[in-house]
Here is the input.
Amino acid sequence: MDYEIPLEDEVGYLNDEELVQRINELCLDVYGEEYFEIFGFEEYTREQRIYQMKYLQRKSDILVKDLSSNREGYNFLDLWREYWNTRVVLNADACDIYGFVALSQLFNHVRVERGVKDDLRLHACVIMPSGMAKSEFNDILAEFADIADKSYYSVGEFKINKLIGEINKKIVSNNMRINAFSKKDRGWVDPIEPGILASFDYVVFDEGEAVLDHKKIRIQAILDKTMNRIGSKGNMITSTDNRIHSNPACSIVITSYHLDTYTHLFKKGLFPRMIVYVQPEDPIKRTKTSEYIVSAIPSFVDDISEAEKKRKDKKRLQDKLRKKLKEEVENLQNMHKDTETIYMRAGVDEIINEYITELRNIVPGLNPEQIEAWESMVSRVSINFIKVAALFAMMNYRNYIDREDAHNAARLLFPAMRSVAFYIISNNTGRNEKLNRLVMRLRREYIGMRYTKEEWQKVFFKNFGAGESSSEKLIALLIESGKMRVLKNKEEDTTVYMLS
Here is the structure.
């Protein structure tokens, strides 16, 4: 990475309070959370805070630059984003993830040689609250499959024999009736019906809760094997009677609402093989999604023909984008029809390793239980990173990974990995633990102080970079938990707050 890390003399003009505010700004840029949510309520030295600033600036560097459009005109990702935005809003991260899952199936014949020959397939799991357009994401992927002459299957029945394949007993009976026992015999019909995983390019579990349940060990094991390298022994799926076996080459997509039983999947094989994106409940996003659905209905002021024109204009735009996407897919496939292997420019390996280090250390201060889940989750990050970088290269009509491909891979994977880290933290850090840290920190300096709400807000701002809204929440939390008392002076008509 080409970011120059600031030294003490470069931030020396900032006093301690200003330094906290700068770090708080970076926390908001990188994580969408304030300083205290990331670094807690401990007391840090100036040297430690400068380290925090360096830590955050390296991550900010990944997010601020978008190098995906580095050739004249639109590339695949530009077209994909524009088409996506005619259908859904406020899901830019999911948009890019789906785009690269779609792209990866165009190049099933291409390999990256990393000691073994690995295919470029990507798999995704998107976990969001209900009503956030997850099914619409899958519909867009289905439409792309049609555009690219690829096959798509949305799994409705979560039955193992449907996934692997099964023997058609009626055909077996007919074969026996005419004494046809092999393909050499006249009239023989193969009774094996291929499974879904080996028959389609994109296999989507739209209501994935049934697949992700901790009791569905067998199905999860089959999906693990499906995601292993195409053609490897680990990729072969077999029926229990060993009569049906195949090496699936599909990309898997799972969408689900939130469950309480996901943690085990971070520690096992399924999630580490996928790009996992977890979006928490967000009332603002939910409201805007609802507003978009309503506003998308063509409207008119004076004459209904105005609404009809809007409808036709949108349809023309979508048709135009579908046509451009189809042309781009054909151009890419023609360009890479003879591409067998992806190479890398000398020196890019060091850049990739630096980015992977940043992704592996995406949030600070994990506790031992969180570290166990996180380390399992990121155990395969280098594999997905190389695949994404290779796809960026191929998308830009190259058969080698360059510096910008490494950056773009980091930029695409960062939001997904950040979302997983926060999910792990939220499920392994109790509310009381955070509250106790806050109280211990405040008692060192402010025990016995009787401050107004505005004065406490200044304390939170100075020490933790907390804005007015966050300060209000912290004060309410302290009062609710009995850690802060509300004292009212009726004569002076004033209210002050004191730590208990």
Observations:
- Residues 148 and 329 are 7 Å apart (CA to CA).
- DSSP finds 22 helices and 15 strands in the chain.
- The mean pLDDT is 86.
